[in-house]
Fold this sequence. Notes:
Elements: E1 8-12, H1 28-37, E2 42-45, H2 57-71, E3 76-80, H3 86-99, E4 103-106, H4 117-128, E5 136-140, H5 142-145, H6 151-161, E6 165-170, H7 175-182, E7 190-193, H8 199-204, E8 209-212, H9 219-231, H10 234-254, H11 256-266, H12 283-295
Parallel strand pairs: 1-2, 1-8, 2-3, 3-4, 4-5, 5-6, 6-7
Helix pairs in contact: 1-2, 2-3, 3-4, 4-6, 9-10, 10-11
Amino acid sequence: MTRNKMEGMIAATFTPMKEDGCVDAAKVKPMVDRLVADRVKGIFVCGSTGEGPSLTTAERKLLVEAFVQAAGKRIKVFVHVGHNSVAEAKDLAAHAQKAGADYISATPPCYFKINTVSALVDCLAEIASGAPEMPFYYYNIPALTGVALDMVELLRRAAASLPTLAGIKYTTSLIHEYQACLNFEEGAYDLLYGTDEMLLSALVVGAKGYIGSTYNFAAPLYEKLQVSFDKGDIRTAQRLQMKAVRMVQLINKYGGLAAQKTMMKLAGTDCGPVRLPLQPLEAEAVKSLEKDLQIMGFFNERS
Ligand code: MN9
């Protein structure tokens, strides 16, 4: 089987919301148009950045339809279907296939923690069977799921049990494990790197595709980083990666996703606030964040 391989930036999209926290599907199209103009290669819908686990199933389906339509085949659409209920995840997978998305991805159920690769494979096989025609990416993000298993072992077992597995959306800082996965069976699987502040480290060991939140508002910065890396200009790539590190430090200082949605607004693509359980930034924090962003040159071509 020839497996799917992605190259370049994939933006983990935010879910646009109205001030009251309702989904605002009308804002999807302008967000996608902006990403296409920024030359991203794909979008990852309803993931961590999209507050997927905080949305209802009906909202997730509506968003998938809106994103697929807005993408209009210009860029690839990944749909995150992970859910604590495996049955819901399978239903979301089937929906993504019907809606015309390109790929599905899922976190494992994580209220009851999975602690063996074999249980993980059982869950993923059941979820992926909802969309038998779609390449499937396991979404490995132990910091949020609490499920930290051996990813090489997952790949080893996939041939027998996960026929549609295309690869892993790999969001941890274990570059050595990421490298081992990239080299598994001479690169049989697609390993999409998911920690934006460590992109250069991932490129060094062979990353080709990467998914993340900051590609929504800083794509030009990462595009330059990739070009510098490809030319062998490591000094410039290091300098640009350091800018990304400073940007993520600011995001963490002001509160993660709420800060990022504020940055989207300040950068001209308003996608509204976060919803519970996340908390919005106080007015004072917004002012201070804007000032910090100005100082770091964020608004000069977002790089
Ligand atoms: O998976 C994102 N991770 C989370 C992607 O949302 C937890 C990343 O893109 C981070 O937001 C980014 C900043 O830390 O690396």
